[in-house]
Write a structure and sequence with these properties.
37 strands; 35% strand; Peptidase S9 prolyl oligopeptidase catalytic domain-containing protein; Esterase-like; Immunoglobulin-like; AB_hydrolase_fold; mainly beta; ten-stranded mixed sheet
């Protein structure tokens, strides 16, 4: 199946629905309302109408369960008890984020001069009627010559909404998705704006089964006004190329920018939220940009709170779910396009923020994540090192407008009542995680003046305390260039997103803590600790050696070398790549086991372990007992990992060790 085809079995049914609704609308509608067409499919009813040639006119969309009536005396259309769904601006039928041409839908052809509105269904309705009223200067127009009405739709049902392919350009397939501004029984809201079209890109061949999915945050590939300034796509240093699907979820709610543009000539904290299109891949209050342009000034609910909704995150998760649900026929068997155990995320800067926060908040989806120069804690603001999140600086002001200022922001909570700046703190999320988190590769710079170094060691310590696996790299990189891309770092060669493709959700893995001779990140000052270093980086395991049964576990652990830049030009571009090695041929570390597939670990259970020579199993390096914690996480303390490898064998103490 290629990109232009529908899911098996869906196309015929959709054509039947469209045909019935189109014929119904054309037959039942009076002649003066023939310019309104409605069609339902996949949880949404789409409306199109002929626009008045006046850019100042907006269009109010009404929906009722009774036909709209005409006052014969005044020749006006009566609203009656119909519900106002929302409104649409002039040119709503044009794909302004991409080509500027009319949107493509499978329901009806669109031409220039036609408006478009997508209504997401919240409950089953046997028959619904729609009308579109022009509004000029705040005054609703009601004459039959200007109102489009008489459109009738049958059997509207709640269902997961789907995106529609718009164009193929530069090897990227561009889709548009109209998400609801409210939750339904099957999906969450994507924005606070009715019928807002989001554009995203897909790269790869959706006609092949069982491919990895990489979510490349913030590459600016879905925005024609911003050319890709850096690639967020798996490349290859040590890893062979393979088929993959890359999802680019670029595109923010520009409606907020239009409503809250501000005055760019004013100081950053006074000009207003001029970059509200950037919500750092989380979200914002539901009334932001509608009632007010600053969260601090929005009205509180009955509990004295302002609710921050994770609109952008939900939009990304919805498209991942849609991609994972796509099936192709191979022989007599239907197979998924995406391997559900191989979903990954990555990005630079704000893209790294989106990748990390999304993956940690949804660990059941992602196998691994790689981020370069991300921020870990949006509440962090330090005096030790100046950056753009200090009080009064640009990014801090955007955050204050989106989520409230920190001193008074306890009234700003998410939909579960959690303080928003806890929800936007990775250390808090890790501390409260009740699952095995995705494996992380994170690269940061001690001289980063956008997201400072101060917060980084705290997060490293949190990951270690919770025994979650992270490979953390730091060097002397700064942020430079028009894209604020991290440059000039010794660890630049490690930024290879295909590295994380080796990890899978259905494989167990070790977590390394208390590593002997580990590099020192310091206490938060750029002057503390080692100038260049890595935590856990030299420790790995051979995934092909894992044996994970209900009563026995086996895995070979080993040391590895790392790619590292050893020579730069004056612009700090890497001229020569070398290899970095652990300081010793034997590294001692505590090893915990996560992602276990079959091996049963009982809370506080006692297990016998052996560490042997992989080439000579009779040669035992270490042996002893390991006890699981109250949550069933087992840790082997002081295990010696050798350059040549060491095989770890584990079984319940009373069963002995007969491997």
């Amino acid at each position: 199946m290629n990109m232009d085809q529908e899911k098996p079995g869906a196309c015929l049914a959709l054509r039947k629905v469209v045909s019935v609704f189109f014929i119904t609308a054309m037959i039942s509608a009076p002649a003066f309302a023939a310019d309104l067409v409605c069609s339902y499919g996949d949880g949404q009813t789409f409306l199109k109408w002929n626009e008045i040639n006046d850019p100042t006119v907006r269009y109010q969309i009404y929906r009722g369960t009774q036909p709209f009536q005409v006052n014969e005396a005044s020749q006006t259309v009566l609203v009656g008890d119909a519900e106002l769904l929302g409104d649409a601006e002039f040119g709503s039928g044009l794909n302004k984020r991409r080509s500027g041409r009319p949107f493509l839908t499978p329901f009806f052809p669109m031409t220039k001069g036609e408006g478009l509105y997508a209504h997401t269904i919240r409950q089953y309705t046997a028959t619904a009627y729609y009308a579109v009223f022009p509004n000029r200067g705040g005054q609703r127009l009601e004459s039959v010559e200007e109102v489009a009405f008489g459109c009738e739709v049958s059997n509207e049902r709640v269902a997961k909404t789907v995106p529609f392919l718009q164009e193929n350009a530069g090897g990227v397939h561009y889709f548009t998705h109209w998400g609801a501004h409210y939750d339904t029984a099957v999906q969450k809201a994507f924005s606070n704006t009715p019928s807002y079209p989001f554009t995203f890109g897909i790269e790869g061949d959706l006609s092949k089964p069982d491919q990895p999915l990489f979510v490349g945050f913030h590459p600016r590939r879905a925005d024609p006004a911003k050319t890709p300034e850096f690639e967020v796509k798996p490349g290859a240093f040590d890893n062979p190329a393979e088929d993959e699907i890359v999802y680019y979820p670029e595109n923010f709610n520009t409606n907020l920018l239009d409503a809250c543009g501000g005055d760019a000539t004013q100081p950053s904290c006074e000009r207003g939220p001029v970059e509200f299109v950037n919500d750092f891949w989380y979200g914002y209050p539901d009334r932001l940009g509608i009632r007010n342009c600053s969260a601090k000034e929005l009205p509180r609910n009955s509990n004295g709170q302002v609710i921050i909704r994770d609109y952008s995150r939900q939009r990304v998760l919805h498209i991942i779910s849609w991609l994972k649900g796509r099936l192709i026929k191979e022989g007599e068997e239907l197979k998924p396009v995406i391997d559900p155990n191989r979903v990954y995320a990555g990005g630079y800067s704000m893209g790294g923020i989106g990748a990390l926060f999304t993956a940690v908040a949804s660990p059941e989806i992602f196998a691994a994540v790689m981020a370069s120069a991300p921020k870990f804690n949006f509440a962090a603001s330090y005096s030790e090192q100046s950056d753009q999140w200090d009080i009064g600086e640009t990014e801090r002001c955007y955050g204050d407008h989106l989520w409230g200022d920190i001193p008074s922001s306890t009234v700003f909570v998410d939909t579960e009542g959690v303080w928003i700046y806890d929800r936007l703190n990775l250390s808090y999320l890790v501390d409260h995680a009740r699952a095995d988190l995705p494996i992380m590769y994170v690269i940061n710079g001690k001289n980063d003046n956008v997201v400072s170094w101060d917060e980084k060691p705290e997060f490293y310590h949190t990951m270690e305390a919770n025994k979650q696996l992270g490979y953390f790299f730091w060097d002397q990189r700064v942020k430079g260039g028009k894209a604020h891309t991290p440059v000039g770092g010794e660890w630049d060669p490690m930024i290879d997103f295909s590295t994380i493709y080796a990890y899978r959700k259905n494989q167990s893995y070790p977590v390394f803590t208390n590593v002997q001779g580990a590099d020192d990140p310091g206490a938060g000052s750029p002057m503390d600790g080692d100038a260049v270093g890595v935590l856990n980086g030299y420790l790995t395991w051979d995934m092909h050696t894992v044996i994970d049964t209900p009563v026995r576990f086996r895995m070979t652990l080993k040391l590895r070398s790392l790619r590292k830049c050893v020579r730069f030009n004056p612009e700090r571009e890497c001229l020569q790549m070398g290899r970095a090695h652990a300081s010793s041929d034997v590294v001692t570390a505590d090893v915990s086991l996560r992602g276990l597939q079959s091996f049963v670990v009982e809370p506080k259970g006692v297990y016998l372990y052996k560490a042997t020579n992989p080439e000579n199993p009779s040669e035992i390096y270490q042996s002893g007992l390991a006890k699981a914690d109250p949550n069933g996480l087992i840790t082997i303390e002081g295990l010696q990992v050798r350059d040549a490898g060491v095989t770890l064998l584990l079984g319940k103490a009373e069963d002995g060790m007969n491997h």
